[in-house]
Amino acid sequence: MSFTLPKLPYEKMALEPHISRDTLSFHHEKHHQTYVTKLNELIDGSNLEKLELEDIIKETAGKDDFAGVFNNAAQVWNHTFYWHCMKPSGGGKPTGSIDEAIDQAFGSYDDFKQAFKQAALTQFGSGWAWLVKDNEGLRIMKTANADTPIVHGVTPLLTCDVWEHAYYLDYQNRRPDYVDTFLDHLVNWDFVNQNFSS
Ligand code: MN3
Questions:
Q1: Which domain holds residue 64?
Q2: Mind listing the pLDDT tens digit for each residue in 166-179?
Q3: Alpha helices by DSSP H, 44-188
Q4: Is residue 33 part of a domain?
Q5: Cα 95 to middle of ligand 1, angstroms
């Protein structure tokens, strides 16, 4: 089986003025596509070829010999998840059952925002900030490079890509502005609720 680049869940201009069409074009058609292409090359003819994406990620996690496969597979998964974490006219206070869960876990939406932003800004270099669910409830986590919560026994609910390619054309080095905009104008709480109740 070979993997294909999933379609974006909205038009390339749909997130303007917060994320430009150029950023989404490069990010989806170049970066995300390259992870898909490299993954296909790396698994071609191997036993991994028969597995689902999530199984390839779990199978190769932490194995030095398979670092290339893991990195590309996890980046394919992380990006597909990230696209769905955003929508036009999103962001702001949560709706649905996640609202109460956030208050319970963090005290208030503002406290959640602060914690999420802190994780996004303190991720040194490339990586991801996440809201995840485990047996204890909700928590914030950050991962470096391609690392993904699905190999850490927790359920991802929301992510923000903090690799520079996610924001540099629009925000240059101002990662804090990008993360604020993500939280205030882009988060797709419907998708977060779906993940929360699944
Ligand atoms: Mn990216």
A1: 21-84
A2: 999 999 999 999 99
A3: 53-60, 67-84, 97-106, 109-122, 168-171, 175-181
A4: yes
A5: 26
Whether residues 108 and 78 fall in one domain: no
Instruction: Determine the distance separating the centroid of ligand 1 and the alpha carbon of 137, expressed in angstroms.
Output: 27
Residues 76 and 125 in one domain: no
CATH of the domain at 177: 3.55.40.20
Q: Does residue 129 sit within a domain?
A: yes
Quick one: 111 and 191 in the same domain? Answer: yes
Q: Determine the distance separating the centroid of ligand 1 and the alpha carbon of 128, expressed in angstroms.
A: 9
Q: How far is the CA of 146 from the centre of ligand 1 (A)?
A: 9
Q: What total of structural domains would you count in the chain?
A: 2
pTM above 0.85, yes or no: yes
C-alpha of residue 35 to centroid of ligand 1, in Å: 10
For residues 101 and 132, is the Cβ–Cβ distance under 8 A? no
